[in-house]
TrEMBL record:
Name of the protein in its database record: Sphingomyelin phosphodiesterase
A single GO cellular-component term on record: extracellular space
UniProt: Zn(2+) 1 binding residues: D233, H235, D312, H506
Source taxonomy: Eukaryota, Fungi, Dikarya, Basidiomycota, Agaricomycotina
Gene3D superfamilies: 3.60.21.10
GO annotation terms (biological process): sphingomyelin catabolic process
Keywords, in A-Z order: Disulfide bond, Glycoprotein, Glycosidase, Hydrolase, Metal-binding, Signal, Zinc
Record carries keyword Methyltransferase: no
Function: Converts sphingomyelin to ceramide.
Signal peptide start-end: 1-20
GO molecular function, one term: sphingomyelin phosphodiesterase activity
Cofactor(s) the protein needs: Zn(2+)
Domain Calcineurin-like phosphoesterase: start-end pairs: 226-507
């Protein structure tokens, strides 16, 4: 008898056999030949075994035969251009602008980017870039709309229309790499991105020769002193209105349309005839200063041996109140007055950030076409004025007219003056954010290097004159050009560069340049110093001032500096009478104010070494400047707060509106003075103490 399991298996096998008989055979071998009867005709021989059969197919709907090319394995079509491939319908330029604004709003509201304002900013710049490339005229409208949407200002049209910054920003967006370093740098200026680190400099081949080692023997002092006047930041305001609101809620004060929001119908502080703390220089103050220079400096009969003017002629008007004609008007007025009161010796001038239209802006020639040449009118006019006043020869002004108003001139006494348009690295020059990784996109630092090399070869001494400083608290200059400038100063100091002069901040400041990018800061490594000149204008909360340098006639080192100021707080008392005007007085002698406890001959220069020793007096120890830890090191010093407060007081030209410098302000001042480049300051110094206001 079969077991149960074997019986079950037999029954299952029998079932499979029955099913197989129902569906036919379980195995079938197809014929080797293609069944040609399936189709009526073929493009090829269907019986061949070397190629697949290609039957002729007719579309029963259209009664058209599909072409052989559709299936020909050797020649089938690609990138079909017959069938429709639809794209979105084109929109009008205004619709593009609306879409761009909507995308920027969406980026700002995107929760995935909520904690990354840098990404939001650069993504928004990319949207703007695409818009201005497609519809340039829409760029200013987008800038104005973004301003209004994010409530950046209550005067968006005045600030961002095509007749203000809108056209400039549109150009910058079209040319900048907004998704990369350019965009991050621009967004950092808006406090939306961290400041990117300096790009490592490639100095290979930059200098024609290595720095001499040892340095050539220094030029011996002559014992004779030149008197050199320094004026900066005049900011003449021909629109100044005596009796108007001097304590207004928004620039410019001392204008007919100025008002105080707390008391819009009644003047809170009347604009004095000779000026006010929130206002630029009225003509009465300008002439008072010019008249005071001769008697105070002992140059009334002869005038100074020469003068330097470190820029900023025009008033702090809104961009929509500027024009080329207004800039040229102010240039003619001020240069004529400087010639009248400081002549007959030359005044070596440079451009300030307010001496152009649009304000602050300078574009590299390399941008080409109308964009690259849009500021040529300024260079041509200002250089022609310098020649007209008799300050520069024709060959010098011809060069300046085609090189951003930069020039180099050798005086008959042997000193070379090199004047640079330092707007090229100004952080408010939006064109400086184009190719921001390039330290010299304008070629001006190449010019400076070549001139310094020629002076080294000739054994000459050089003064470098500019407007926008490279260091102090770091906020005014782009890090990469400032870094390159620092290396150039290192290479040619102290044997070639005798002094550097800037203006711009309106305050009395200073910066020291050290060897090897300031890695070690002591009296031996201090190489050069930049004198940052206080302003003639009282804006903002400052007194009015000018300065006289006593300079050795052979070394061109500064032996003393005398700063003269007028107390703006006393100006209201001078109204409604014509017997007396402002009183300018000697605020301080630099040597007497800071050099009392330093072993230094009366004929030794106030050079970088001296200034380092001065700052050492403010602290018990000299120190090694290390990135990141400098704030801790300086804060732990036992400083002399009285001396730092003296510097702070003079920084404001002894303004009664200046608060005291205490706490962290004290080490910050020392750090600023020892930071000749913006990158050093950003890396090392406490922020927020640069100004006395």
């Amino acid at each position: 008898m079969l077991s149960f399991s074997r019986l079950a298996g037999f029954i299952l096998w029998a079932s499979y056999q029955a099913q197989a008989n129902d569906i036919g055979a379980t195995v079938y071998t197809a014929p080797g030949a293609f069944p040609t009867s399936v189709y009526g005709t073929y493009w090829n021989d269907p019986t061949a075994t070397s190629a697949e059969p290609q039957p002729v197919i007719t579309d029963p709907v259209t009664n058209e035969i599909f072409p052989y090319v559709l299936s020909d394995p050797a020649n089938f079509p690609k990138n079909d251009t017959v069938d429709p491939h639809l794209l979105p319908e084109a929109v009008t330029p205004s619709q593009l602008m609306e879409q761009a604004l909507a995308q920027i709003q969406a980026i700002a509201a995107n929760p995935a980017l909520a904690d990354n304002t840098c990404a939001q900013c650069q993504a928004s710049l990319a949207v703007g870039k695409m818009l201005v490339l497609a519809a340039p005229e829409q760029g200013p409208l987008l800038a104005e709309a973004v301003c209004e949407y994010f409530n950046y200002s209550t005067t968006c049209y005045d600030e961002y229309s095509q007749f203000a910054l809108g056209s400039t920003l549109s150009q910058v967006l079209s040319l900048a790499n907004v998704g990369g370093y350019d965009g991050q740098t621009l967004c950092s200026a808006l406090s939306l991105c961290p400041i990117p680190p300096p790009v490592p400099l490639n100095m290979t081949g930059w200098f024609a020769k290595p720095k001499p080692n040892p340095l050539p023997p220094p030029i011996q002092p002559s014992g004779e002193r030149l008197k050199v006047l320094h004026v900066s930041d005049i900011h003449i305001d021909p629109r100044y209105a005596i009796g108007a609101e001097a304590n207004c809620s928004a620039y410019m004060c001392c204008r007919e349309n100025a008002f105080n929001a707390v008391s819009p119908d009644q003047i809170v502080l009347s604009a004095a005839r000779f000026g006010a703390y929130f206002c630029d220089t009225p003509m009465d103050l300008m002439l008072s200063a010019m008249q005071a220079i001769g008697p105070l400096t002992g140059t009334e009969e002869t005038g100074p041996d020469f003068s330097i003017f470190t820029g900023d002629i025009t008033s702090h008007d809104s961009d929509n109140q500027y024009s080329r004609a207004y800039v040229e008007y102010a240039e003619v007025m001020i240069y004529n007055l400087l010639k009248k009161y400081l002549g007959p010796a030359p005044v070596y001038a440079t451009l300030g950030n307010h001496d152009t239209y649009m304000q602050f802006q300078m574009i590299p020639y390399a941008m080409g076409g109308p964009l690259g040449s849009q500021f040529n009118w300024l260079y041509e006019h200002v250089s022609a004025m310098w020649q007209y006043e008799g300050w520069l020869a024709e060959n010098v002004t011809e060069y300046a007219a085609t090189h951003y108003a930069a020039y180099a001139v050798k005086r008959t006494d042997g000193l070379k003056i090199i004047s640079l348009d330092t707007n090229i690295w100004y952080t408010n020059n939006y064109y400086s954010y184009i190719n921001a990784t390039e330290p010299d996109p304008f070629g001006v630092l190449r010019f400076l290097t070549d001139e310094l090399q020629a002076s080294e070869d000739a054994g000459e001494r050089v003064w470098v004159v500019g407007h926008v400083l490279t260091g102090w608290d770091g906020t005014q200059s782009q890090v990469n050009p400032a870094n390159l400038f620092y290396q150039i100063v290192d290479r040619y100091s102290p044997h070639v560069i005798a002094n550097i002069f800037f203006g711009h901040t309106h305050e009395d400041q200073l910066a020291i340049y050290y060897a090897n990018n300031g890695t070690v800061m002591n009296a031996e490594t201090a190489l050069a110093v930049s004198w940052i000149m206080p302003s003639l204008t009282p804006l903002t909360n400052l007194n009015s001032g000018f300065r006289l340098y006593e300079v050795d006639s052979a070394t061109f080192d500064i032996l003393d500096a005398y700063t003269f100021v007028a107390d703006v707080n006393e100006f209201p008392a001078l109204d409604n009478q014509t017997e007396v005007g402002p009183t300018y007085y000697l605020e301080y002698s630099t040597r007497e104010a800071y050099g009392g406890n330093i072993t230094w001959s009366e004929n030794d220069p106030l050079n970088a070494t001296w200034w380092h020793l001065v700052t050492d007096r403010w602290s018990r120890f000299s120190y090694l400047l290390e990135p990141v830890i400098i704030t801790t090191v300086v804060t732990e010093m036992e400083v002399n707060p009285a001396l730092v407060q003296t510097f702070h007081t003079y920084q404001s030209k002894s303004s009664v509106e200046s608060p005291n410098c205490t706490g962290e302000c004290i080490p910050a001042k020392i750090c600023y003075i020892r930071s000749g480049s913006s990158s050093l300051s950003y890396q090392n110094c406490p922020a927020g103490y640069s100004s006395t206001q």
